Amino acid sequence: MKTDLKPQLAGYLLAMADDEIILAHRNSEWTGHAPILEEDIAFTNLAVDEMGHAGLWYRLHAELVDEDPETYPDRLVFFREAPFFRNVQMVELPRGDWAFSMLRQYLFDVAESVWLPGLADSSYQPLAEAASKIAREEMYHLRHTQAWIRRLGRGTPESHRRLSQALDEIWPYALQLFVTQPTDKDLAAEGLVPLRSAGREAWLAKVEADFKASDLALPEGGEPPTTDRRAHSEHLVGLLTEMQSVARAYPGVSW
Amino acid sequence: MVGKQGDQDKLAAFEDRIARGEKIEPGDWMPEAYRKQLVRMISQHAHSEVVGMLPEGGWITRAPNLRRKLVLLAKVQDEAGHGQYLYHAAETLGVDRQELLEALLTEQAKYSNIFNYPTLSWADIGIIGYFVDGAAILNQTMLARCSFGPYSRANIRICAEESFHMKQGKEMVIRMARGTPEQKQMVQDAINRWWWPTLMMFGPHDSNSPNSPQLIRWGIKTRTNDELRQTFIDNLIPELHALGLTVPDPDLSFDEGAGHWTIGEIDWDEFYRVIHGDGPCNKERLDARRQAHEDGRWVREALAAYAERVETAEAS
Amino acid sequence: MTDTQWPRFYVFKQDTADSPYLNCGSVHASDGEMALLNARDVFVRRPDCVSLWVAPASHVTEVTVDGLEALESPGTSGQEQDYEVFTKSASKGQHARVGQVVASSPADALRKASEAFNGDSWVWMVVPTSTIVASPEDEGPAWFEAARDKPFRHQSFYRTERLIREIKAGQHDPPGDE
Fold this sequence. Notes:
- The structure holds 3 protein chains of 3 kinds.
- The mean pLDDT of chain B is 94.
- In chain B, 69% of the residues lie in helices and 2% in strands.
- In chain B, helix 2 runs antiparallel to helix 4, helix 4 runs antiparallel to helix 7 and helix 6 runs antiparallel to helix 10.
- Chain B is mainly alpha-helical.
- Chain C has one domain.
- In chain C, 24% of the residues lie in helices and 28% in strands.
- Chain C is built from 5 helices and 8 strands.
- The mean pLDDT of chain C is 89.
- At the A-C interface, helix 2 and helix 6 of A face helix 1 and helix 4 of C.
């Protein structure tokens, strides 16, 4: 890899890792409060997997910036302020109701399903390996969330209304997933990563098909609230305040 | 008269089977008292696992590093799984899970007292794993030998997973005890609050446990409350002392002759107060479960409606 | 509409290609597909597993050896179909799949099973093959390999016992001296 691309690839990996950890954190808020015991277990499994994915991306990022992959991820997650996170705003939104959280997870899972094949083909071997591993788990995630979206869409009038409402709220945020950052083009040109924007059509097609089976209409148009992964809502501040509270109270200790 | 003799014969045969170490399976003849005891015990055990997700679950969002976060998430997930296995065992005796949940939410059914205590610091999470899961392991190892097949099998599965629960807590405690003075103080404070409630987990003294002899004869219990409690104390005290930690018991002493640690008096008033609803978190725990149940109603109804729709469509 | 915990589905798990399906418990789910997904999350967080079956509890018929004798005569009801047969052949342990029979009713299946698969069995369980929902054969890795990547779920991941032994033996500096 060209040396000048290392920091750019590191940035791309950081963004993926931040997406995963924030989403996992939001999903973990359901543990102990899910609609039924089986989902306390199943939805938590999604969070466990996402957290694992975050760890993989953070370690790869650490290697690229010459930091210790064993300790740097914790520094990134527990000692960075909100403006320095690189996740999309969609994942930092509060968990809302079950329809909202499930829809958010579903839209994210479909996005991963369109990008992971390209990532698994990366000319950067460690990234390709991590992506193949993750792709296996993601296939299962999508089965799970797809099954839920269908059932909520065609369940009762109430479940449909809630899913519809969730869709109205989340749609513009979901579009931010496909915004290509300025540095991504060079990375894509070198075969290191797929262009995020290139996945948008495939994502829309999959989502449209599943929405049809859920009696949902694909929203038309819409603009993401931001195209800059450095821009966050205040929700992230609340989230990080809680997430980092114990770590920051005792910096530098071993847990 | 024939009926009564028949029942007595059946009871004798049943007790013989148990004495021979055979498992009783759903569908086998069993005394009504055996069935009732098991439904009560198993469902209480299941409720404990589910409510038990709450004191630690609340700290997942504050775990101080990625490893701890992931491990705690997996542990709490396992508790849900354990609840699931146990409700299944109860259901094999003919009760509906909906009924069992209603009994819990309307306070007709009990769950383990220990979960009515608050988790006030991150160190509590380590202590819960080390102490509470440690105590549970002793109990569940015994229950894995229980005469009722489904309950025995559920406990076998639980035991296989519970070791990890205890060890992840122990690992935390070891690190904190040997860490900074603030960490050590945090973990010592957690011990001071959790020690006595943990000892109460083993139940009243044998002299105050009228059910025990029958439970032992029916292979539901194989060790008494005091025996299990003593094993727990004997295992734990030397480890805590090696870590430079103490327990809040001025009467703690080692009986050289017996080879056991003796403790002071347990405050049974507190035990009964908490069991009867007057503990620090009883209300919060049940409120949380009721909220989750209520919030989940539309979800359960939606999937039931979808299934019905599909069935109707397939049938036509 | 009455609120329910959804129907029960019995879960059967095959650990390796050479081992029989074992009944590991049940899950509550609204339909077969959800039951299969839930079963994977409830029962396969740790290795090993290569295949999973779920069947609605309403289609599972179980009988103890004593109950077998009391079974009503099956008569000439029902169309013949395949039944999967499970049995517990030791006092301890789970119900394991021993094979299939063709029968015209659950009672008929139970009788045929006890004849076909002799041995000292304690309990018999039969399920019509058509009611079983199975995990997709070609998706094994996505469903079951993930369980291998979670070593933190296993107690051997934590070196606590060795550490405590060493601390007790004074092989580490006493706490507070650091």
